[in-house]
Amino acid sequence: MQLRHLRYFVALADERHFGRAAAACHISQSTLSAALRLLEEEIGAPLVERDQRFKGLTAEGGALLDWARRILAERRRLDQEVAALREGLSGELELGAVPAALPTIGLLTTAFHRRYPNVRLTVVSRTSNEIQRALDEFSLDAGITYLDNEPLHGVRATTLYEERYILLTPADGPFAARRSVHWAEAADASLCLLTPDMQNRRIIDGIFREVGKTPRVLVETNSVMTLCSHIRTGAWSSVFPHNFLWVFGTPPGMLALPLASPVRTHAIGLVVRREEPLSPLVRALEAVAAGLDMASQLEPMVPPAL
C-alpha cells in the first residue's frame, strides 16, 4: 500500500468529486481511478459508492479513511523530525481560527515566524465545530478557538487571552453620553452580528437570554469583514470582542462601550490534538503560545467603564 495512494483516497473523501480530487493532487482522473482500484484490491472490498460520480464511502472506505488520515499525519511528523535534525524547523503548519480570534492571530503567528522563519504558515477561518472536526480528521495542525464555552474533546489547550465584549454604536445615538452599556439596553439597538453557526454569536445570544432579552438583529453575516463594513458606515451597532479594537480601532463617529450587567469573559486559546509525541512544529507553536502575553497587549484596547 503506497502513501501516495492513501493521499489520493483522502483527497477524494474530502472533495467528494473525482475531478476535484485529481486536481487537488495534481494528477489525472485516470491516475486517481487506477490508485483507487489498487487500494480496493488490497483491502478486498469496494471503498467508494459510485456509478458515474462519487456518491460516498462504503463502510470499508470509512474505516480506511480514519486509518489513512492517521498514517499520513504520522508521516508528516516523521518528515518534520528528520528536517529538524538536518536544518532546524521547517515545513508547513496549518491553523484554523474562529472569526472572533482572527483580528489578533497575527500576534501569535508573527511571534512564531520570528523564532522559526523557515516554517510556512497557513491560517484559515473556521467555526469552532469545524476546528474540532478538522483536528479529529488530522486536516488541521492546530486551532484557535473558545476553550470554556462548548465542550472540546481530544485536545490540549493553551489560553491566549480572555475575550471581553463591547458595544460599537453610533456616537450620536442613544448612548452618546455613556461610558458603558447594559446588555439589556444593547438588545434594543439596530444590531449587526455574526451568524448563529459562529460560537461568538451563540455566546452573545446566551447572555441576552440571561438578561431576558431578544436582540434586535437586522443584519447577520458569517464574514468579519462584512461586519466591519456595516459598522464603518456609522449606521449600525454591534457586539464585538474587545480584540477587534487592536486591529480596527474605534471607527470615526462610533463609540466603543464596555458591556456590563453582566460582565462576561470567555477564554480564547490554542488547541492541538492530545497525542504523544507532538510533531516538532506543533510542539514549537505550543511553546510560543505559552510564552506569549497576548492579554497585556489587548488590555489597553478596552475603554474604561464608570
CATH class of the largest domain: Alpha Beta
Q: How many structurally independent domains?
A: 3
Shape: elongated
Structural class: alpha/beta
The amount of helix comes to 40-55%
Q: Termini, distance in Å?
A: 67 Å
The overall strand count is: 13
- Classified in CATH, the superfamily of the largest domain is Periplasmic binding protein-like II
**Radius of gyration, whole Å:** 23 Å
Keywords: DNA-binding, Transcription, Transcription regulation
Protein name: DNA-binding transcriptional LysR family regulator
GO molecular function: DNA binding; DNA-binding transcription factor activity
Domain HTH lysR-type: 1-58
Q: Could you characterize what this model shows?
A:
This protein is an alpha/beta fold and 306 residues long. The protein folds into 3 domains: 3-72, Winged helix-like DNA-binding domain superfamily/Winged helix DNA-binding domain (Arc Repressor Mutant, subunit A), CATH 1.10.10.10; 88-162 and 266-301, D-Maltodextrin-Binding Protein, domain 2 (3-Layer(aba) Sandwich), CATH 3.40.190.10; 165-260, D-Maltodextrin-Binding Protein, domain 2. Helices cover 43% and strands 23% of the residues. The chain is built from 12 helices and 13 strands. It has helices at 3-15, 18-25, 29-43, 59-87, 105-115, 128-136, 183-186, 199-210, 224-232, 244-248, 280-290, 294-298, and strands spanning 48-50, 54-57, 91-97, 119-125, 142-146, 155-163, 165-170, 181-182, 191-194, 217-221, 238-241, 254-260, 266-273. The strands form 4 sheets. The protein has a 5-stranded mixed beta sheet, sandwiched between helices. The model has no long low-confidence stretch (mean pLDDT 90).
